[in-house]
């Protein structure tokens, strides 16, 4: 059991170290006293898997009978396509700080079906997200987009370029996934639409209904441009990340209107 736990911890450490570089993770040690944990942290201040003093402890309690979960292993439902994580600008930037041979080692441990975790599912943000610690360029705001104004042509821009681009990041992962003859399943979502689509052009405002059509086209442009650039299709599209508490404060009713009357018709007409 300890060996299996150590293997799982090793895989999780790699995943969070390179894909979610600002998360702190608690790792249970098999050789510690029962109930003790240690905290391992990677952060923007420069800590890299730094072991923190033991700050947490567990105590055994009896769970209420109302919270008992029974699972029938003989009853099957939908098929799980696979497991994975997010392809983020912060992850690509961190990965590219390593020597090339170490980069390959990390990618192999994450995506290789024989010698790694065999991840086959990924999430790609549409534009900037909260795990984009750096702007696309010195003249950009943090929440950069692929179209700065209604007249500007769509361009993936920073997502095409090293060291932080998600397109080359995905393409490198595919080199290992292809060995299993399993496709990489990608899901995309948006944290923040282009600012000019928002009510009053204000950060945090909801999407102006007048721009539901252009936003639907924005989703389609991303799906098409990303596949053209990477060779990998976007299989799933989520209109907003954290829809109940999104950066745009859009209501679920408005999302339904956007989906049914704009996004779905636009994608269907394009054959996407």
TrEMBL record:
<comment type="similarity">
    <text>Belongs to the glycosyl hydrolase 30 family.</text>
</comment>
<dbReference type="GO" id="GO:0016020">
    <property type="term" value="C:membrane"/>
</dbReference>
<keyword id="KW-0732">Signal</keyword>
<dbReference type="InterPro" id="IPR017853">
    <property type="entry name" value="GH"/>
</dbReference>
<protein>
    <recommendedName>
        <fullName>Glycosyl hydrolase family 30 TIM-barrel domain-containing protein</fullName>
    </recommendedName>
</protein>
<keyword id="KW-0378">Hydrolase</keyword>
<dbReference type="GO" id="GO:0006680">
    <property type="term" value="P:glucosylceramide catabolic process"/>
</dbReference>
<dbReference type="Pfam" id="PF02055">
    <property type="entry name" value="Glyco_hydro_30"/>
</dbReference>
<dbReference type="GO" id="GO:0004348">
    <property type="term" value="F:glucosylceramidase activity"/>
</dbReference>
<dbReference type="InterPro" id="IPR001139">
    <property type="entry name" value="Glyco_hydro_30"/>
</dbReference>
<feature type="domain" description="Glycosyl hydrolase family 30 TIM-barrel">
    <location>
        <begin position="80"/>
        <end position="244"/>
    </location>
</feature>
<dbReference type="InterPro" id="IPR033453">
    <property type="entry name" value="Glyco_hydro_30_TIM-barrel"/>
</dbReference>
């Amino acid at each position: 059991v300890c060996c299996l736990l150590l293997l799982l911890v090793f895989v999780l450490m790699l995943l969070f170290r390179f894909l979610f570089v600002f998360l702190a993770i608690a790792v249970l040690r098999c050789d510690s006293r029962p109930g003790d944990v240690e905290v391992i942290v990677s952060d923007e201040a420069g800590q890299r898997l730094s072991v923190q003093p033991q700050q947490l402890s567990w105590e055994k309690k009896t769970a209420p009978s109302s919270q008992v979960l029974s699972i029938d292993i003989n009853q099957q439902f939908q098929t799980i396509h696979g497991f994975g994580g997010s392809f983020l600008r912060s992850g690509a930037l961190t990965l590219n700080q390593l020597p090339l041979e170490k980069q390959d080692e990390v990618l192999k441990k994450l995506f290789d079906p024989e010698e790694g975790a065999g991840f086959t599912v990924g999430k790609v943000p549409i534009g900037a997200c909260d795990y984009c610690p750096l702007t696309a360029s010195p003249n950009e705001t943090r929440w950069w987009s692929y179209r700065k104004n209604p007249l500007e042509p769509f361009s993936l821009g920073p997502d095409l370029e090293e060291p932080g681009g998600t397109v080359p990041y995905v393409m490198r992962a595919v080199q290992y996934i292809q060995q299993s003859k399993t496709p990489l399943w990608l899901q995309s979502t948006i944290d923040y639409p282009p600012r000019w689509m928002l009510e009053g052009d204000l950060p945090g405002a909801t999407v102006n209904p007048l721009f539901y059509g252009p936003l639907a086209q924005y989703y389609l442009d991303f799906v098409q441009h990303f596949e053209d650039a990477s060779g990998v299709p976007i299989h799933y599209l989520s209109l907003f990340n954290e829809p109940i508490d999104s950066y745009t404060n859009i209501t679920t009713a408005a999302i339904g209107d956007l989906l049914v009357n704009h996004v779905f018709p636009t994608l269907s007409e394009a054959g996407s």
